[in-house]
Write a structure and sequence with these properties.
By secondary structure, the chain is an alpha/beta fold. The chain is built from 17 helices and 18 strands. Helix 8 runs parallel beside helix 10. One of its GO terms (molecular function) is transferase activity.
Length: about 550
Amino acid sequence: MKKITLIFLIFSGILQAQQKPNIIFILTDDQSYDLLGCTGNAIVQTPHIDKLANNGTLFTNAHVTSAICTPSRISILLSQYERKHGVNFNSGTSVSDTAWKNSYPVVMRNNGYYTGWIGKNHAPIGKGGYNSGLMEKSFDYWYAGHGHLGFYPKDNHNIFNDAIAFTQPEIINEGVDEFLDPNARKLKGALHFLEERPSDKPFMLSINFNLPHGASTRTMKQKDSDDTIYKTLYRDLEIPLHKNYIAKADIKTPKLPENLLHTEDRQTGYNYVDTPKDLKERYIRELQAMTGIDRLIGNLTAKLKALKLHKNTIIIFTSDHGLFGGQQGLGGKALCYEQTTHVPIIIFNPNTPKKNRGKKSDALVQTIDIAPTMLEMAGIKKPSSFQGKNISNLANGGKKEVRDYVFTENLWSTHFGNPRCESVQNKDWKYIRYYKNNNFSATKEIKYAKELGIPVNEMLYNMHDPGIAVYRDYIDAPLNNEQPVYEELYHLKKDPAELHNLVNNQEHAEVLNTLRAQWKIEITQARGTRKAEVFRYTNDLYPKGKH
């Protein structure tokens, strides 16, 4: 009798594990909301992503928390605002082991999920950041590079050298195949905790692109070995300029005061927006990259079906933030405008009733909501450190919304000219506030680095201990009554492109005061009460550390 009971319990455990959904989370890089067919782009070819949206839920009013890679990605991993987790390129910190234990992949692995990470990692985790090894050890399957991949990842990361392909989406696709399919070609560079994915455990796979980010698209070379997508697609079309595009030479009145946004110090990688010719070339590459990503997703869904995994695998798709392509004369990110904070979130759940599929939700959601949503779908209790909301009910056709306001912030205020700013918005209005920008000039740093023979990248990107104090004060000062030096108010319903600043319009004084008051509530909640769980991560302690 005891033997029968034991067999029953083992069988029940396997059955329960199999009933838990598999989850695949796909994250693109610098992909603006309007770079998909399903979000209104009439040029780009993304039929497979569009199909996910048409059979799932597309969140049309989704936002990031910080419009720059590292803090946004850590916010997704930890379900926290940057003001709470305390890590950015200019923070001099990495995520501590303690904080990392509450990341979604670690929590899911500790609760019976087989986990994988493929593509790009741009989050410094553990003592020593990217060199700690903690990130790699946290997964059952690892096939990724730290920092930028480039369009040809073998040029930058040895882990990809055994791949057959040379281009980023196709190399990532090889990793996806190996993770899912026990009969797929084995990649010598990939790190395996087990030889293959256990069939009796649910899996959680994170796929992370470094596309259509400019750091990768600018390395595209139209090589003979490149797929036709990356050589000729879209090049026979008349590509229009972005709506509200202004070439640098035609700017009469800058979008922001010159003493606030120092455009002369902008990173040179965003100078392609300055002329229509350069912009069109980069935009074509972005479109090509999106179609390459889309093909991977088509291959992924076909593979799931072939392996009979499609009926129990949830797919979630989003971007780490958007990007300016010359709209209103702006280039780059790290601002609180819709072009940089507004992203698509698509949740496809094959178990959602058909009547609730193909829906669009305008509920205010954020990328920090993805981790608690995945845990809810997996039947796992979320850590108390999470700040995001569970939106699985909205993804299944529910109507009850999770927040009335969205809070976004930019704490990456450096020699590259970006000001600190924060915004709070509802479905109708957005309020943005800016703080004094007294950072030293990148242009001058480059000049003196060249004069003295100092490597320019060391001058620009190395992070030293005093910078930690500066960054911590960026977090604390607004909560300690630092006053804004500039404010904006936009009526999003009537002015979604944020062309007309109404902050001085007395007709909207009540709206402005309401949002100012709400800003205080939102920033206080975003900061939380506990100290950031971080390690010191500067070039003073780690001379070869990358930031």
